[in-house]
Amino acid sequence: MSSTTIVRNDDELMNARALKADGVREQRMLLSLATPALLAVIAIIVIPVGWLFYLSFVGNDGQLTLENYQKMIEYKSYARTFVTTFQVSLLTTLLCILIGYPLAYFLAIMPARLAGFFMLAVLLPFWTSLLVRTYAWLVLLQKNGILNDFGMAAGLWDEPIKLVHNLTGTLIGMAHIMLPFLVLPLYSSMRKIERDMMHAAANLGASPIQAFWKVYFPLSISGMVAGSLIVFVLCLGFYVTPAVLGGGRVVMVATQITAILENQFNWGAASALGVVLLVATLVILFAVSKLFKLDNALFGKN
């Protein structure tokens, strides 16, 4: 082997070591820049969730036990609470899809400037307190409320309909609050669909309905999945709206946790409920990630 080859190999080895050292320094620098954010995540999320897990295994006597989870298996009220929670969350998501998809489609086909103006109406609820919106629906839906008065005056029904303190009122209030969370990602996804694709489908002989279902709708699924996932997960932890509009008849997990803390002051049982709900939510997210690409579901990419 010639001396020139040896020198060349030494240079390549030195360059590789230098590049590796630069990569390590860059990783350390990026880690140092991310350290404040990581510490914030640990302080705000990891430690509280870890403490929640720990409390769920602590009994009334302060000893580690599984009695909090055993109670959830033994008492049927816990099972009914979870069934109600997932039922309300699923129905609210379906209502938002039925209302939000046509609304997002209407906004997507409009000129951008006009669509931005109408989008303000969708975003308007964000500027009002959640509690104010909930009590506004309570005023509208009660027996002597505006909606019942209008229905009887118009001859739609003869006596007041019970629209509040039940599942109906809860779904109406939650759908109104959750609707923007579905419309925004769905609208963003629809805006990315090229109009020429619909024209191409029409030129190939597809009717408007066929072009919509075979071309437009599949391309908008990512945005619908994103919005549905956000709505469903947020509904799982809802408290104010079911408590006010449900009138104690629609008991969700958050309501049950509050009742346990107020009546029994049992942090272990309340923590166990929170842990089970958290695990169920993670399982749902995992299942969705297997059915859809997670970046498509969360960011509406086509």
Using DSSP, what is the number of strands? 0
> Given the C-alpha coordinates, what overall shape results?
flat
Order of helices and strands: HHHHHHHHHHHHH
Largest sheet: none
Fraction in helix? over 70%
Number of helices: 13
CATH architecture of the largest domain: Orthogonal Bundle
CATH class of the largest domain: Mainly Alpha
Fraction in beta strands: under 5%
Radius of gyration: 27 Å
Average predicted confidence as pLDDT: 83
Q: What's the helix and strand layout?
A:
Elements: H1 3-56, H2 67-74, H3 76-108, H4 112-123, H5 130-141, H6 146-153, H7 167-191, H8 195-203, H9 208-236, H10 240-245, H11 253-263, H12 267-291, H13 294-299
Notes on the protein architecture:
The chain has 302 residues and is mostly helical. Helices cover 79% and strands 0% of the residues. It has helices spanning 3-56, 67-74, 76-108, 112-123, 130-141, 146-153, 167-191, 195-203, 208-236, 240-245, 253-263, 267-291, 294-299. The mean pLDDT is 83.
Give a brief outline of the structure.
The protein has 13 helices and no strands. The protein is an all-alpha fold and 302 residues long.
Keywords:
about 300 residues; about 0% strand; single chain; flat; about 80% helix; MetI-like fold; mainly alpha; 13 helices
